[in-house]
Amino acid sequence: MYPEKRFYNAKDLSVYLGVTEDAVRKWALRGQIPYVKLGKCLRFDMIRVNGWLKKKECAFFRKEFIADDSRDDGLEYNEAEGRLTNLARIL
Question: CA 7 to CA 42: how far, in whole Å?
Answer without folding.
Answer: 10
